[in-house]
Design a protein that fits this description.
- The protein is of the alpha+beta class.
- Helices cover about 40% and strands about 25% of the residues.
- It has a three-stranded mixed sheet. The chain has a two-stranded antiparallel ribbon with strand order 3-4.
- Strand 3 (about 75) and strand 4 (about 85) form a beta hairpin.
- Helix 1 packs parallel to helix 3.
- The radius of gyration is 13 Å and the shape is globular.
- The protein starts with a helix and ends with a strand.
């Protein structure tokens, strides 16, 4: 795996940690993961590793996890206008 792929896995792990931090102590009951299909191409044969990294950051094999690969994402930073995002990952944790 190249350095770009390694940093993508680190970003996925951070997204999962950030999502659980937002629970503010509530017990995690499950999570949804939305990944850009460009990440699958970037990670190549290691793309399953991204799900493993996210699942581990959320607490391991017993975590209820769902999601999908998307083709194009729109998002804004704070009050700015929404723009096209690529190679993004979003983790939504439920507690």
């Amino acid at each position: 795996m190249n350095l770009h792929g390694r940093s993508a896995l680190e970003a996925a792990q951070q997204a999962a940690c950030d999502a659980t931090d937002q629970l503010k102590g509530a017990r995690l009951t499950g999570a949804l993961v939305f990944c850009s299909v460009a990440r699958q191409k970037m990670l190549g044969s290691e793309f399953q590793g991204e799900i493993d990294v996210i699942r581990d950051a959320l607490g391991g094999a017993g975590v209820r996890l769902g999601g999908f690969y998307s083709y194009g994402e729109l998002a804004s930073a704070s009050q700015s206008r929404p723009v096209f995002q690529s190679e993004s990952v979003v983790v939504v944790a439920f507690g």
